[in-house]
Amino acid sequence: MPFPLTLEQKQTAFWLAVWAAFFFLLVTLGPILTPFLAAAIFAYALNPGVDALHRVRLHRWQAPRALAVVLVMLLFFSAITTLVLIVVPVLQKEIPLMQAQIPAFLAKINDLLGPRLQEMGVKIRLDSIGIKKLVSQQMATSGDEIWTTILNSARTGGTAVLGWLATLVLIPVVLFYLLLDWHAMLARIAACVPRRWIGATVAMAEEVDALLAQYLRGQLLVMLVLAVYYSAALGIAGFEVALPVGIITGLLVFIPYLGFGLGLILALISAVLQFNDLSGMVAVAIIYGAGQVIEGFFLTPRLVGERIGLNPLAVIFALMAFGQLFGFVGVLLALPASAILMVAFKHLRSHYLRSSFYNA
């Protein structure tokens, strides 16, 4: 015969079911939560600046919080715009030059690989004329299928573009209201926590906040050091675009692979366009290889890993584990998420060591 549930047990089961339904709803609505999640991350990072401006007093006048929010958002989006303005001129300069170099590059490949392919029975030209001929034949034989694929891609791409535009428009709006009501929102969340757990919850939240602040400071140091390193190294090697490419590579390093990959591609294009031999590409390989070693084995484990209490092995494991579980987003959020889990596991371990199960 089952034991009857007490009133407290029934209430606990009810609220657990409510929270489970809430998280299921969040998972279901995941595709539309991107701008809200991105705005929440930005709001967490920018809120200290808003608080600092809001506390400014000139005689008896205090800056309204709404004005502080607007000023901080303008500075933030101005920094992003500056980064874009650094990237775009480099691309505008290099892409046309690269297009002009493509025929000569294909001719070299054809001279190198063409005879070997003919020896293997493959009769194809790898220069611009041969590739144009191959594309024309393919279009003639499967034109309907290609046209159908293009239309489907256009529909999918158009939907994706509209989604990205909506996200870009929503992020500043959501960010403004989150920053404006940040402290009130946190107070409402704290008010929802059961009173018997409020002390432990607030203590854990403060500990997580301190760790994430240390993480952000460490990551900013890594970005600054790498921006200086890549700019200086490329400048010493004689690259004309050393400063913008170095800054891009350093500032985007907080996005694993993307920042490094974009900087590497730009540097390789510069090497092909600026140098007549392989010396430029060899210099890029040495500079970016050394940069990866410096970042992966020294800067990130020391400046970021130690600041959040993770040793270098834990940092490497966190990047691999979260990347395996959640893909690119997991790699991006691996270290801050590990800091949060570390706080939770530390309190869980403390509770376990005090339990009767351990001490019996």
UniProtKB/TrEMBL annotation:
Residues annotated as transmembrane: 12-45, 66-88, 161-180, 220-239, 245-269, 281-300, 312-345
Protein topology in the membrane: Multi-pass membrane protein
Pfam family, any one: AI-2E_transport
GO biological process, one term: transmembrane transport
Gene Ontology cellular-component annotations: membrane
Swiss-Prot/TrEMBL keywords: Membrane, Transmembrane, Transmembrane helix
Source species, domain of life: Bacteria
Location of the protein in the cell: Membrane
Family recorded in the similarity comment: Belongs to the autoinducer-2 exporter (AI-2E) (TC 2.A.86) family.
Protein known as: AI-2E family transporter
